Amino acid sequence: MRLETPCEVTHNQLTFDVEEIEPILQGPAMDIKPWPGATIQLKDGRTMYIREAKMEEAPLMMEYVMKVMQTTHDFYDIVGARVYAEILGWYRKRLKDPYTLVGLVDGEWAGFANGRLMNKDINISLHTMALMRGARVGAIMYYAKAFYGFELLGNTEWWATYESYNGWMRWGVGMAQPSYPWPEYQHELGGARVYYVTKAYWDARVKEYVRQMVGADLVFDVPDEIIKANETMHLPDDVTV
């Protein structure tokens, strides 16, 4: 847009350094308490270590998720596309206050969970994926990120939505999540209905429901050998979603 100036100006052209523009596009980040890292025992007796993803791991993660985008059953194509964009948004600093958790078994990427903070009260759940089948990895990762929001970050509400029938049945119906009136409230994933959990509801029912589904609990006293064994992430041989 161009308009005639309402007064005489000294300089007809102004130049911006891109480093001056970046704070406007990126926005100031909240001071978010980091996920401390935790272990949990899987059904088969193996130990999964859940830690924050490292920024340098983003290209590797996107390499795998690109393959998920080629899978058309159970909405994995759109889930893969959105997860790819979320990882890239985190990597390029175009996602507000994100958190990205990975579950690793002896260094192999087994689970993924991410979200972002709208503000200090509202935690927006984005996606949860199990890369390893038959070990309740998806439930564990969902439990971990909800635990992170309510127990460690002090969030008072958890906003979710569902792209697949399975996700809606397990979490929406399974957790008996209420929803806000639509379209007054819309989740950022496609403008879908917002399902929510309050801290009071988490304490009263949801926390124990998910913990029982998982079948074990998070252990935050992580041995050094577990941390070392999962310091470097490697991708699974196959896509098994």
Structural class: alpha+beta
| Strand line-up in the sheet with most strands | 1-2-3-4-5-6-7
- Output the CATH topology: Aminopeptidase
* Cα gyration radius (Å): 20 Å
Can you give a write-up of this model?
With 241 residues, the chain is α+β, with helices and mostly antiparallel strands. It has a single domain, classed as Aminopeptidase. The chain is built from seven helices and seven strands, in the order αββααβββαβαβαα. It has a seven-stranded mixed β-sheet, sandwiched between helices. Helix 4 packs antiparallel against helix 6. The chain is globular. The chain starts with 17 loop residues before the first helix and ends in a 12-residue tail after the last helix.
Topology of helices and strands:
Layout: H1 18-26, E1 38-41, E2 47-52, H2 58-68, H3 76-91, E3 98-105, E4 108-117, E5 122-130, H4 137-152, E6 157-160, H5 165-173, E7 195-198, H6 199-214, H7 224-229
Parallel strand pairs: 5-6
Antiparallel strand pairs: 1-2, 2-3, 3-4, 4-5, 6-7
Helix pairs in contact: 2-3, 4-6
A few lines on this structure:
The protein is an alpha+beta fold and 241 residues long.
Descriptive terms for the model:
241 residues, alpha+beta, seven-stranded mixed β-sheet, Aminopeptidase, 7 helices, 34% helix
